[in-house]
Amino acid sequence: MALTKEIMGGSIFERSSSSKVLLNQSAFAGNKLRSNQLFVNPISLPLQRRRVHLIRKAGAVRGIPVAAISEDLVKAAAASALSAEKAVKFKVRAVLTVRKNIKEDFKEKIVNRLDAITDKIGRNVVLELISTEVDPRTKGPKKSKEAVLKDWSKKSNVKEERVHYTADFTVDSNFGVPGAITVTNKHQKEFFLETITIEGFASGPVHFHCNSWVQSNKDHPGKRIFFTNQPYLPSETPAGLRALREKELKDLRGDGKGERKLSDRIYDFDVYNDLGNPDKGSEFARPTLGGQQRPYPRRCRTGRSPTDTDMHAESRVEKPLPMYVPRDEQFEESKMDAFSAGRLRGLLHNLIPSLKATISAVNHDFNGFSDIDSLYSEGLLLNLGLQDGILKKLPLPRVVSRIQESSQGLLRYDIPKILSKDRFAWLRDDEFARQALAGVNPVTIEKLQVFPPVSKLDPEIYGPQESALKEEHIIGQLNGMTVRQALEENKLYIVDYHDIYLPFLDKINALDGRKAYATRTIFFLTPVGTLKPIAIELSLPQSGPSSRSKRVVTSPADATSNWVWQLAKAHVCSNDAGVHQLVNHWLRTHACIEPFILAAHRQLSAMHPIYKLLDPHMRYTLEINAQARQNLINADAVIESCFTPGRYCMEISAAAYKNFWRFDKESLPADLIRRGIAIPDPTQPHGLKLLIEDYPYATDGLLIWSAIENWVRTYVNHYYPNPSQIRNDIELQSWYSESVNVGHADLRQENWWPKLTNGDDLVHVLTTIIWLASAQHAALNFGQYPYGGYVPNRPPLMRRLIPEENDPEYENFLSDPQKYFLSALPSLLQATKYMAVVDTLSTHSPDEEYLGERQQPGIWSGDSEITEAFYEFSAEIRQIEKEIDKRNDDPSRRNRCGAGVLPYELLAPSSDPGVTCRGVPNSVSI
C-alpha cells in the first residue's frame, strides 16, 4: 500500500511522521475535484513552509477537471513491487477542456454534426504523450501509445461553453515525467483547446496550459505540440524535449514567404505599407511607414500581394472580411461579440447623420449646445425626426427596425462622465488645466525649463526659434513672483505642441474644413496645488517677413476676449487630442509594443519562463492592431476623418517616432524625470520627488509601476540568480535582439537602447513592457469617451482659425460668438462618428483580464514559488486599488476631489464590463 501511494500521488494533504506533504488518491473520487480539496504537484516540502501558499492556491484551481485513478495503475504498482527490474505497463488518464462557441451558424452546425459522425469511424482526435527522457533504443523522446479522445460524438450537442473529454494512455513504468503532448485533429473543424490535465503519474497531476486553436489535419498536416506548465530555461531543457522545443519555434517563425491563411500560426514582421489603397485613386494613396524615409515600428506580416498601381503597397482586405493575424491572437467569442456590437452602434450613428445631411438643406453644424445635449437625452433618431418610411429605405432596414423596437438606447449616447458632476465643468480654466494632470492625456505636461520657450526646429526651414511669449503676457498671473522666481521655484509648466505640429500646418490648413495652429500653453502652479492656464501661444508657418505667424492669447478680461480664450483652449484641446491619439496612445502603447510580441512568439518557447511572464500582457494586441489598420488609421477612415491632421495623421505619428520616441524613457520614472515633473530622490518611496505633488496619473502610476517592478524582480531573480545565465540564454537574447534589430529596425543603431547583460537590465526591460501594455495603455484609453464624448470639452478637430480684427469673419464672430464657436467644432456627422468610435474604444469586454489576474491562475506555472509570488503581486494590486479609492475621497487632493471634480480612477485596477473610466487590463486589448 505504501508503494502504491507513492506511485499514485494524489491531491489532498496528509501529515506523515516526518511532517512532509503527502498526497491521497481519495480526492479524485468520481472524476471531480471536491470543493475543499487542493490540486498541486507533490513536492516534498515541510508542511509549515507551504501552508500559506496552499491556502491561497486552493480557491484558484477549483473546477479544474481531473481524472479518476484507474485500477490498472494500482495493479501496475503491485506488479512493480514484485518485479522491480521489469517495466510494467499502466494507464493514465487525460482530461481535455475544450471551449465551444455558444453561437453557431448553420454551416458550423452541419460541420459539427459531420465530425460527430466521422469520429465514430476513426476520424477523431488523437493524442500522444511525450516524456522528458530520451529512449535509449530510439535516441528520441519516450512516447506513449496513441490515445483517442472519448465521447466526442456523444457530447456533440452539449451547449455548455466548456466541454470535458477524456483519453486513456498506456505507458511503461519507466516512462519518466511527461513533458509534452501532441494532438492530431482528424475532424473537419478546428477546436479551441483550453487545458489538459494528466492524472496517474507518481509525480502527481500534470497540467498543460494550452489556450490554442487546434486546426484540422487536412488544413495543417502534422501534430500540434503542447508543453507542460513546468518552465525551463533553454539550457535546462530535458533531453526528451529539446528537439520539440526547437521545432515548435521554427514552425511559428515560418519561412517569410507567401500569403498567410487565417488558420496559420506564423509570426513575422513587415512595414506599414497597407494603410492606403492607391487602386481606388491617388487621394487614397498613403506613404509606407517603416524604412529610412519614415521610420516606424514593424507590424505583423500578412504576405498579401501588392496593389495594381503601386508595387510597394500591399493590397488591402476591407471590412467585413478579416485581416490575418496568427490564429491564436484572434478575438475569442465574447470579445468579438462586444466589439461587433460597438461597430454596429457606430454604423447606426454614422448612417443617420449621413442621411440627415442628404435629406436636409439645413447646414449640419450644431446650431446650439442643446443640439449636443439632445444626443444624450433624445437620441439621434428622435432628434432628427426620422419617420418609418425613411427608416425602411436604409441599407439595413431589418437591423435598424429591430433595434428601434428592442432598445431606443442603442440610438442614444450615454452621458459622458465629464458632464456627470458639473455640466459646465469643461468651460472652467481649472478643469482645462486639471485634465493635463488627470485627464485622458496626462503624459505631455512638462516643467518649463526656460522662458520664453525655444523651438528645436531648423530655423532656415521653419523660421525663428524664439517664441512670441513675453514676460508681459504672464507676469500679472504669477502671484507677485517674477518669471525668474517662478522658474526657480518650479511654478511654471507647459504643454508644448509647437514642434510636432508646425512642420505639417501648411498641408493641414490646405485641407477642406481643417484649420490648426501649433500651440503652446503655459500653466502656473497655484499655492493649493492646482494649475492655472495663463497664456496660449498660437503659431502658424511663416509665409513672409510680415506674416502674422505667432499670436499670444491670455486670460480674458471681457466678453470678447473670453470667447477668443475659449477658442484658443479649443485649439489646444484639438492639438492635444491629435497627439494623444496618434503618438501617446497608438504609437507608444499599440505600435511600439507589437515588435516585442512578435519576437516573443518567434524566439521564446512556450516553456520559457519569460514567455510565461509576458503571456497575459500580449493577449489580443496583434488583433486589435490589425483591426486598427483596417478600420481606424487607414486612408479616409475614422482617425483621418475625425482628427485635424486628416490624411497626414500617420505621418505625424511617424515623425514622433523618429524625433521623440525612446524606449529607455518609456518607463514611468524615466518619463517623469525627462519631463522635469520629478527629480531623483532616494529618500522618497519610489526614488522620486514629484514637483507637482497632486499629480493623480503620476502618484497612482508609481504605485502600480513599483508593484510590477517588484513582481518582475522576484520572477527574474528566481530564474536567473547569476547574470551569466541571462547573457547565455539563447532564446532570451534572440528575443530582445530581434525586437530591437528587426521590430524597431529603423532605430536599431541608437545608443539609448538598454543592454541585456544582468538582472537589473532584464527587470527594467520587462517592467517597461508590462507597464506600457497594462497601466500606461489603460490611462490613455479608457477615458476617451468619458472625457471626449462631449465634443466641446475635447474637440478632435477644428474647422476655423480665430479671427482677428481686420479679418472678414470678425464681424460674424462678434455678432454671434456662440454660433462661430460651434461652427469651429466638428460637424454633426464628424462629432457623432468620433463619439461612436471612442465609445467602443473605451469599453471593457466581459472577458477582460485585469492586472493581477491570470487565466487558470493555479496552473499557469508549475513552479509553486512563482505561483505564490504571483498571488502576493495580486494582493498588492488589490491594496493599491483601495489606496486609490482613499485618495479620491481626500479633499486636500484638489485635482481629484471637490465640487464638480471627477475622481481619478483610470489607474484603479479592476472594472465591470462597459464604459467605466477605470480598470487596468493586462494587455492592449482594445
From TrEMBL:
This is Lipoxygenase.
